[in-house]
From TrEMBL:
Its cofactor is Mg(2+). Coiled coil: none annotated. Pathway: Amino-acid biosynthesis; L-serine biosynthesis; L-serine from 3-phospho-D-glycerate: step 3/3. The active site is at D92, D94. Its EC number is 3.1.3.3. It comes from Arthrobacter pigmenti. This is phosphoserine phosphatase. NCBIfam families: HAD-SF-IB, serB. It catalyses: O-phospho-D-serine + H2O = D-serine + phosphate; O-phospho-L-serine + H2O = L-serine + phosphate. One of its GO terms (molecular function) is L-phosphoserine phosphatase activity. Belongs to the HAD-like hydrolase superfamily. SerB family. It is an enzyme of class 3 (hydrolase). GO terms for biological process: L-serine biosynthetic process. One of its GO terms (cellular component) is cytoplasm.
Amino acid sequence: MTETFRVVSFGARSEDTRRKEVRRALGEAGAVVVREETHDDDRYSVANLTVSFDGALEELRRAVAPLVSEHTGIAVVPPSLLGKETKLLIMDVDSTLIKQEVIELLAAHAGREAEVAAVTESAMRGELDFAQSLHARVAVLAGLEEEVISDVGTRIELSDGAEHLVEAFLESGHVVAVVSGGFSQILEPLAARLQLTHSKANLLGVDAGTLTGTVIGPVVDRAEKARCLRAWAEAAGIPLDRTIAVGDGANDLDMLAAAGLGVAFNAKPAVRSAADVAVDFQYLDVVRHFVTL
């Protein structure tokens, strides 16, 4: 059966996005380009192709995969994300929605930033159990004054284009959620500022104004992130094939696999190879070009 797909090639503004090569590869695979739209600004360039194809999604992805390079990404988007129906965008927080790793900013107050950063990096590559590594990293925060949370909150920077991406989805009537292996005390004010539909993170233990070095309740791990995706989609009446998940670390793998489109954002190699599309530059809002808003 012939279906309509979207093929999006994107790259840094100064780089060739290989539009001719993409069209040629699609033609050789038997796809017909029926429309092309472009977006160019001083940050990046996008060529958005609507194609008609009577084969499978994975065939199109294999056809254009050799054209992905250091400078050019390519997203092949299924028909389920191309209508005007309500969608769910769910994102990781640390190093995805925001530029920093909050646990490292907190650890800097204890003089342990380098140590914690090394463990975080290993956990995000999937070399360590996330829950165990989180408990070990949080333990170094024991004894810090609760005020360090507010200090860290003032230092958080959104990823380039993050606010624009959230606004674009919300203004079009879609659901926007974040789920984090970080901490509720940091995430809740940020979620309120961005007017996010849903948010979830771990709760840092605090006693008499001092961090206890513990996490309260079950850890938000990769399984919990996928569970949140399914639960929030079900609550909104959104099928999983109309969901988009964005993340960078091994803790996001289940969520990316469950979504209709899994996006790796400046991700670790294992995540990049497992995702449906990899974004390897700093502009998070390019994701808005992948679907119909």
